[in-house]
Amino acid sequence: MEQVPSAGRLVQITVTEGYDLKGFKGDTPVTFIRAEFNQVVLGDSAKITVSPEGSAKYNFTSSFEFNPEGGITSDDLAHKPVFLTVTEVLPKEKKQKEEKTLILGQAVVDLLPLLEGPGQNYMVGLQVPSLGEKDYPILFKNGTLKLGGEREPVPRPKKWPIANILAPGANNIPDAFIVGGPYEEEEGELNHPEDSEFRNQAECIKKRIIWDLESRCYLDPSAVVSFQKRIADCRLWPVEITRVPLVTIPKGKAGKTEKTDEEAQLSFHGVAYVNMVPLLYPGVKRIRGAFHVYPYLDSVVHEKTKCLLSLFRDIGHHLIHNNKIGGINSLLSKQAVSKNLKEDKPVKEKDIDGRPRPGDVQAPSIKSQSSDTPLEGEPPLSHNPEGQQYVEAGTYIVLEIQLDKALVPKRMPEELARRVKEMIPPRPPLTRRTGGAQKAVSDYHIQIKNISRAILDEYYRMFGKQVAKLESDMDSETLEEQKCQLSYELNCSGKYFAFKEQLKHAVVKIVRDKYLKTTSFESQEELQTFISELYVFLVDQMHVALNQTMPDDVQGTVATIYTSSEQLQLFAFEAEVNENFEMAAAYYKERLVREPQNLDHWLDYGAFCLLTEDNIKAQECFQKALSLNQSHIHSLLLCGVLAVLLENYEQAEIFFEDATCLEPTNVVAWTLLGLYYEIQNNDIRMEMAFHEASKQLQARMLQAQVTKQKSTGVEDTEERGKRESSLGPWGITNGSATAIKVEAPAGPGAALSILDKFLEESSKLQSDSQEPILTTQTWDPSISQKPSNTFIKEIPTKKEASKCQDSSALLHPGLHYGVSQTTTIFMETIHFLMKVKAVQYVHRVLAHELLCPQGGPSCEYYLVLAQTHILKKNFAKAEEYLQQAAQMDYLNPNVWGLKGHLYFLSGNHSEAKACYERTISFVVDASEMHFIFLRLGLIYLEEKEYEKAKKTYMQACKRSPSCLTWLGLGIACYRLEELTEAEDALSEANALNNYNAEVWAYLALVCLKVGRQLEAEQAYKYMIKLKLKDEALLAEIHTLQETVGFGNPSF
Question: For the purposes of burial, counting CB atoms within 10 Å of the CB of 469, is it exposed (0-12), middle (13-18) or buried (19 or more)?
Answer without folding.
Answer: exposed
